[in-house]
Every structure is written in structure tokens, then in C-alpha cells.
Write a structure and sequence with these properties.
Layout (H helix, E strand, L loop, with lengths): L3 H12 L23 H15 L10 E5 L1 H12 L5 E5 L3 H5 L2 H7 L16 E6 L7 H9 L5 E6 L10 H13 L2
Parallel strand pairs: 1-2, 2-3, 3-4
Length: about 180
């Protein structure tokens, strides 16, 4: 939750009047538990959504799930199945993790996978990657996104790699524009 891109996205959202909740997955920072390859982390996302929705000024009809890297991978799996989510944004979706056991391991239990995402709810989706992103190469990301139902958009940031150094504010503004525009 203290990653530079995550912090910048939360700041940009707050600047637009959007309530943003950052959290660490299990086993990260001071969080209890042990990393669970994306399975238990879905429970972490569900818990964060419950905490967010318990806040008095949160509109339950306008809840966007935003994730970066591993968080985007877990977030996509959650967003597809959680009716509380009305929009999803992924920054640097870690395709390497999604395809190397993360999403596949997650969804074997659910009898679904990214490929079956076409049956997921048709909420707005935004995917942002850098043209130099080694974990979310644009060509691979485009193949994944074409399987998803509309509405959806992919933005490729020139000169950016997976860690977004120097592009944090630009990407954060794009995410905040997307979420604030819901």
C-alpha cells in the first residue's frame, strides 16, 4: 500500500473527491497472515470492500476496484464475481502472475479462468500498461482484454515499465479520471 504508484493513485482519487482505501495483502508490511498465491488475498479484497462500504459517505452503487500488479490480478478475479463492484481499473496487471498459477490457481476452485471472463458482469474496465512493462506486455494484455465484455479500454504509456518511475502522476490522473467519471 506504500508503493509509489498506489500512493499516487490514492492521492489523485482523493483530490477528485473519491474515497480511496489502500491496504496491504496478508503477509505484507504489518498485515497478519501469509501470502497465499492469490487465493486468500481474494478474502483480503472482500474485507477491504466491506470496510469501505461501511463508511458513511460511500455510495454503494459506485464502487470501483483498482489494483496494481499482483493486486490488479487478484482484483480482476474478485471484480468478476463480486456484485458490489461497479468498475475496475488495472495498472500493470501482472500477467506473469495471472498465468503462472495465480489466477489459474485461484479459479480452478471456482471452475473459471480469465478466458471465461466473457461471462463476467459488463462493468467499465480500464487497463493501463507501459510499452516497456516486462510483467504486463501490451501484446499479451491486449489478448486478455479482448476476451472481456465491453465496456473496456486499454491505455499504453510510452516509455513506462512495470514500476512507473516518472509516470506515477500521469497514470494516477488517468485512473482518477476513469473512476471519478463513473
Amino acid at each position: 500500500m506504500n508503493n509509489g504508484i498506489v500512493v499516487e493513485m490514492a492521492r489523485a482519487l482523493a483530490a477528485r473527491g473519491v474515497i480511496a482505501l489502500r491496504f496491504n495483502f496478508r503477509g505484507v508490511g504489518a498485515s497478519e497472515g501469509v501470502h497465499d498465491d492469490g487465493r486468500g488475498e481474494r478474502d483480503d479484497v472482500a474485507g477491504a470492500l466491506e470496510k469501505l462500504l461501511a463508511q458513511p459517505n460511500v455510495d454503494p452503487d459506485r464502487v470501483a476496484l483498482v489494483g496494481y500488479s499482483f493486486g490488479a490480478c487478484v482484483g480482476l478475479a474478485c471484480a468478476q464475481k463480486d456484485p458490489r463492484v461497479s468498475a475496475f481499473a488495472a495498472v500493470g496487471l501482472s500477467l506473469e502472475f495471472c498465468y503462472s498459477g495465480g489466477i489459474d490457481a485461484i479459479t480452478e476452485e471456482d471452475e473459471g479462468d480469465i478466458g471465461s471472463a466473457t461471462e463476467s458482469p459488463a462493468f467499465p474496465k480500464l487497463f493501463i500498461t507501459g510499452d516497456r512493462d516486462q510483467l504486463a506486455p501490451p501484446g499479451q494484455l491486449l489478448k486478455l482484454v479482448e476476451q472481456l465484455p465491453e465496456p473496456k479500454d486499454v491505455e499504453i504509456v510510452s516509455g513506462a515499465d512495470h514500476f512507473w518511475w516518472g509516470a506515477e502522476q500521469e497514470v494516477a490522473a488517468r485512473v482518477a479520471d476513469f473512476v471519478a467519471g463513473l
